[in-house]
Specification:
Length: about 775
């Protein structure tokens, strides 16, 4: 059998610089085997193929994988087939991971890096902000809305374990749902550009945030870890527990996380000279931001059944909930010299995920790898507010049930790799509301979404193929076809006198992608891609009745079509000795961009909503919008102990009328120095954000100009330090100081002032 497999591999049209990494017992390809020398490294793909062009013939290479015995060999002595021996000979197994697809990865962190960096991060949003080119907006504690290349909220796709998190009530403003992904459960994350829209579809106009949580591993003994952390600026306490254990053909991974966060203290050093900015006495006490405390609980469990050496079944359960989270950007509002709202909070945000994945490696005419995924998500959220002038609490509740099913296949054909699949998604939304009176009774209240219920159905097919045209040139082509249908029903047609009781919206979308990678030399590479994306109008776009600031109310508009994006990206990567430079230019044109515009209802431009007369707005398709920018990343490994890296990002976004586009962050940059020696790890980092001038804010108010100064959002920078020491194989402790100079600042678009000087203590134990 081994001879047949080896003959087949050698018969494929691979380059002289490609090697195959296989299991020595089953001959199955080993994915994510690392091949490294002292300064560089590559990984094997789904077929066990790795391109080792970047190494010199005299380099000593280390080939290793977490489940296999490592090998050390000089490159010139390598053969095309590398066989690794499993660490557990009694139970030879192939652990089948996600069905990989083709991406450009501007930022990518693997398991060891994520676990180290999560120790110093309070949330996934903060983890992303500190370690990538992402910026984060915060309107309240317990959240964080990631922004990448001007894409935020429902224009930025979130993917966890191959499943899309975005649902039909994801709003266009700022979104806090990334907080339901616990950073301590993450094995790796990446920012995917290029063909991301081909791989994941609706919502990936130009990029996607892809998270993979930790995976069960077969081991002879159980592994447990316990992590504790304290942060001084919010008196936050975090407890995390993870365990991996296996029995014969079954492996388990479990994780539990509990967070208790107090009120957040902002910085005291106001170098920007806006002395009262963010310091409203109705919601702050000295530097303490009141009502920013919250609690969160997260749980994950995975069970992996090894059916045989080529087939497995994975059961994946995830659960997240929180206490109520108050909206700081509402509680700091004033009306007639008094606090406008006596209370404004989100109810517990609950997310339940149940997923079944069937994976198989079996060579056939149609595929080499086969994956079937079935998943169910239940999401619930609510909004509650009471005005100082009201005698009731307004309560609005939303529940979303999401059903997913997909089949993904891949097939290697000579030197080409074909990935293709199909699937469907069904979403069901119920929206309820009431007014809670002082005497404990309830009365009628309008719902946020159609009160008769809503449903969304999607069907899709996709394919993608990669070609190795030569040793230096690789080409990727792909396409995705999507059908989307949304229906919504109104039973209350009298309150607003809507001229309809039902909404129906259908959209067909086709996304295409082409990507070229060209190696001029082993140390100098170019990439160019042209790709399209789409975002179907969701229920939040079409059917919402909502007011952000009590001046304007958004009402339904069923005449919306899909947003379409056309993207061009050019990149240069250079590796010179221990210096790595990555420069990316991108341009995105969004056609039929959905934007909040003034509107009318039955000839009137205003209606009563929540007890006030407000101007009418509705979402409309504007002609187009344009986003372009560049990102520059560099790293320098001075030696095996000292590493320096930095990144720089600049983005410009305009509508066709040359007006500012929402969600465009200011210039931002970071600089990091990391020193590792023996059991010590030290990191010094600095982050910088430029000015966001008031005239560069969008006109619809999405960017929260009212939470900035009269001149916009001032520039800021922070200096941060973190140190960890590994006492022994069981215990590691850490100490850090964030925002060392106690600078006062707000991230762009945020109502909440960022943390002031923050001392972090952590203890990690393995047993």
């Amino acid at each position: 059998m081994r001879g047949i497999i080896i003959f087949f591999l050698l018969a494929t049209n691979v380059t002289a610089q490609d090697i195959f990494v296989l299991d020595s017992i089953t001959n199955a390809p080993i994915e994510n085997a690392s091949i490294t020398n002292q300064s560089n490294g590559v990984s094997s793909d789904v077929n066990g193929v790795a391109d080792i062009t970047i190494f010199n013939n005299t380099d000593t290479l280390i080939i290793k994988h977490i489940s296999y015995q490592k090998k050390k060999i000089i490159k010139s002595h390598l053969r095309q087939i590398i066989l690794l021996s499993p660490k557990i000979i009694i139970l030879p197994t192939v652990i089948l991971k996600e069905n990989p697809k083709t991406y450009n990865f501007p930022d990518y962190l693997m398991v060891k890096e994520v676990s180290q960096k999560a120790s110093a991060s309070k949330s996934t949003a903060e983890l992303l902000q500190i370690n990538t080119s992402i910026t984060v907006q915060e309107s309240q504690a317990g959240g964080g809305s990631p922004n990448f290349r001007g894409m935020e909220a429902n224009r930025l796709l979130l993917v966890v374990d191959g499943l899309t998190l975005n649902n039909t009530i994801y709003r266009s403003g700022h979104l806090q749902n990334s907080s339901t992904i616990n950073p301590f459960f993450i094995q790796s994350f990446s920012l995917a550009t290029g063909p991301a829209s081909i791989n994941f579809g609706d919502g990936a106009l130009g990029s996607a945030l892809i998270f993979n949580t930790l995976y069960p591993v077969f081991d002879t003994k159980s592994n447990h870890s316990f992590h504790q952390k304290y942060e001084s600026s919010s008196n936050a306490v975090t407890l995390n527990y993870k365990a991996n254990y296996s029995r014969k053909n079954i492996a388990f991974f479990s994780g539990l996380s509990i967070k208790s966060i107090g009120n957040l203290s902002m910085g005291d050093n106001r170098r920007h000279n806006y002395l009262m900015w963010g310091n409203e006495d109705i919601i702050t006490k000295k530097n303490e931001q009141l009502n920013t405390n919250y609690d969160q609980f997260d749980f994950i469990h995975k069970t992996l059944f090894k059916i045989n050496t080529t087939t497995d079944l994975l059961l994946n359960t995830q659960y997240s909930t929180s206490s109520k989270i108050r909206r700081f950007d509402k509680l700091n509002d004033m009306n007639g010299g008094r606090q406008k709202y006596t209370d404004w909070y989100y109810g517990p945000q609950n997310r339940i995920l149940q997923m079944i994945k069937f994976n198989s490696i079996k060579s056939s005419f149609f595929y080499d790898r086969f994956q079937a995924l079935f998943a169910y998500q239940a999401i619930s959220e609510s909004r509650h507010h009471k005005k100082d002038s009201d005698t009731f609490m307004s309560n609005r509740y939303e529940n979303v049930d999401v059903y997913d099913g997909s089949i993904n296949l891949s097939k290697r054909i000579l030197s080409s790799q074909l990935s293709y699949g199909l699937g469907s998604r069904r979403q069901i939304v119920s929206s309820l509301a009431n007014k809670e009176l002082i005497n404990g009774e309830y009365s009628y209240n309008t719902t946020r979404y159609p009160d008769g219920g809503s449903g969304v159905t999607d069907f899709f097919v996709y394919s993608q193929i990669s070609f190795s045209i030569s040793d230096k040139l690789k080409l990727y082509l792909g396409g995705r076809l999507n059908y989307n249908e949304l229906t919504a029903f109104f039973t209350d047609t009298q309150t607003y006198k809507f001229p309809f009781s039902e909404i129906k919206n259908k959209n067909y979308s086709l996304a295409k992608s082409a990507l070229i990678n060209y190696k001029i030399t082993p140390y100098f590479m170019l990439n160019a891609s042209a790709y399209s994306g789409f975002r179907n109008p969701n229920l939040d776009d079409i059917g919402k009745v909502f007011s952000k600031n009590d001046n304007y109310v958004v009402i339904p508009n069923s005449n919306l079509s899909s947003e379409k994006s056309k993207n061009i990206e050019l990149g240069v990567k250079c590796i010179i000795n221990n210096i790595k430079i990555d420069l990316q230019f991108f341009n995105t044109i969004i056609d039929n961009a959905i934007s909040r515009e003034n509107g009318t209802l039955n000839g009137e431009d205003s209606i009563w909503y929540d007890g006030e007369m407000m101007k009418i707005q509705m979402n409309k398709n504007i002609e187009s919008a344009n986003i372009n920018g560049l990102s520059l990343k560099g790293s320098y490994a001075l030696n095996k102990n000292l590493n320096i890296n930095s990144n720089f990002n600049y983005i410009v976004g305009k509508t066709k009328a040359n007006l500012p586009l929402a969600h465009i962050p200011p210039l931002n940059a970071s600089f990091n120095i990391e020193y590792v020696i023996k059991k010590n790890n030290l990191k010094l980092s600095s982050r910088y954000n430029g000015w966001k001038e008031s005239e560069d804010y969008d006109l619809a108010g999405v960017d929260n100009l009212e939470e900035a100064t009269i001149d916009g959002n001032p520039s800021w920078h922070t200096l941060n330090f973190y140190y960890s020491y590994k006492l022994d194989s069981l215990f590691t402790y850490g100490f850090g100081v964030k925002n060392i100079f106690d600078i006062h600042y707000k991230s762009f678009g945020s109502a909440l002032s960022a943390s002031g000087r923050n001392f972090v203590l952590s203890l990690h134990s393995n047993f």
